[in-house]
Specification:
Blueprint lengths: L13 H14 L5 E2 L11 H11 L14 H15 L9 E4 L2 H12 L5 E6 L3 H9 L3 E6 L15 H6 E6 L12 H14 L2 E5 L21 H4 E6 H4 L8 E5 L1 H14 L5 H12 L3 H23 L4 E2 L6 E5 L6 H12 L1 E2 L1 E2 L10 E5 L4 H16 L1
Parallel strand pairs: 1-11, 3-4, 3-5, 5-6, 6-7
Antiparallel strand pairs: 2-8, 7-8, 9-10, 10-13, 12-13
Helix pairs in contact: 2-11, 3-11, 4-5, 4-10, 12-14
Bound molecules: pyridoxal-5'-phosphate.
Length: 387
């Protein structure tokens, strides 16, 4: 059998491979603190679970999703965007549900790029952006996210000839892996820059509901002109502690939403109807639980930052997400350090190099564990450093 050449750039996803390896290590009796997990350790709110259970138990809800009305979910998404961000969306033309935001973020490249087209991709960033560009034959131009720019892309530093050639730009705030957020001025500038160069903006806002100090992140679509130049992806995964559900959305520019909808009509058959009903329940419900959950994440953030700084790991305080971006100690590459810490201290963290060239020198630490477990990880790392 010959596998198509376009598959060559598609490597395995290290984070997922490691999760499987760590689960195996656990079965073999090894107690590893897995600080790589980007999946909240809290349950989804009870009433949402009940909505799902009831819907799954309904004997008539197991046909293709096209047998059921999809309007209620589109309306719930539009209403949520209005309530949360003050953004008006036409549920029929500017909203599309996704099987998790990964579904849309991968497929969107098919809608925007022909072979050889340039896509601007932040570095470091979520690896699926680059993979999506490459698999459709696009060309990745990296846009560095540097500490001195608060991990925001410096649009002025993108050479004019590259900006002119580019068909799309990825932005992701709150940011995985750095935990940075973007201020309104950034989006305003991005929109006029995108208009000037005719570049489509794809904003990944998967972490908008995990934030600290009551500073709620904004949406790209809040700013005038956004819908003319792009779309935003969002997901229930991190907002409602339900990564396994595969429920997400793309909203914004109607031409791009329509194009993605055409692709998805062929690549899947829509969201399982009980899942749609649970997602509607989630989006229509109060956000009270998020405040409590974010409070717990904030406490963990404080414990980790203080503990790691004390043992000599320099960290940057994330404004949102459940990730801490930390400097790798002198004398190690990020991969060396993470694999040594796994072998010798039974603590797993993600090497920054996994997120790109400018991720080298950093590691990503997820605080999706209890304070006790995080303190245990810090103790283990302290012993590791003292050896
Ligand atoms: C930046 C970013 N975008 C998108 C996703 C995908 O989320 P989902 O497919 O669960 O909606 C993730 C998952 O970790 C992520 O970190």
């Amino acid at each position: 059998m010959q596998i198509a050449k376009r598959m060559e750039p598609l490597k395995g996803v290290l984070v997922m491979e490691m999760n499987m390896r760590l689960a195996k290590m656990k079965q073999e009796g090894r107690d590893v603190v897995n600080l790589g997990v980007g999946d909240p350790d809290f349950n989804p709110p009870e009433h949402i679970l009940q909505a799902l259970q009831e819907a799954v138990g309904h004997p008539d809800y197991h046909h293709y999703p096209s047998f059921y009305p999809n309007q209620p979910l589109k309306d719930a998404i539009a209403n949520w965007y209005k309530r949360r961000f003050g953004v008006d969306l036409d549920p029929n033309r500017e909203v599309l549900s996704l099987l998790g935001s990964t579904d849309g973020l991968f497929m969107i490249h098919l809608c925007l790029l022909d072979s050889g087209d340039v896509a601007l991709v932040p570095d470091p960033s979520y690896p699926s952006y680059s993979s999506g560009v490459k698999v459709v034959g696009g060309q990745v131009e990296k846009v560095s996210l540097l500490r001195e720019n608060d991990f925001l892309p410096d649009l002025d530093s993108i050479p004019t000839e590259v900006a002119r050639k580019a068909k799309m730009i990825w932005v992701n705030y709150p940011n995985n892996p750095t935990g940075a957020t973007a201020p309104p001025e950034f989006y305003q500038k991005l929109i006029s820059w995108a208009k000037a160069y005719d570049v489509t903006v794809v904003s990944d806002n998967a972490y908008s509901e995990v934030y600290f100090d009551n500073r709620r992140p904004v949406s790209f679509l809040e700013f005038p002109g956004a819908k003319e130049v792009g779309v935003e992806l969002h997901s229930l995964s991190k907002s409602y502690n339900c990564c396994g559900w595969r429920a997400g959305m793309v909203v914004g520019n109607q031409d791009l939403v329509a194009a993605l909808s055409r692709i998805k009509a062929h690549s899947d058959r829509g969201m399982f109807y009980p899942m749609q009903l649970a997602a509607i329940n989630a989006l229509n419900s109060s956000d009270d639980f998020m405040e409590k959950r974010n409070q717990i994440f904030q406490e963990r953030r404080e414990v980790l930052v203080e503990g790691l700084n004390k043992i000599g790991l320099k960290t940057y305080l994330p404004k949102a997400t459940f990730y801490l971006w930390a400097r790798v100690p002198e004398g190690y590459t990020s991969q060396d350090f993470c694999f040594k810490a796994l072998e010798q201290a039974n603590v797993w963290m993600i090497p920054g190099s996994l997120y790109g060239q400018f991720g080298e020198g950093y590691l990503r630490i997820a605080f999706t564990h209890s304070v006790e477990r995080l303190k245990e990880a810090i103790r283990r790392l302290q012993n590791f450093f003292s050896q």
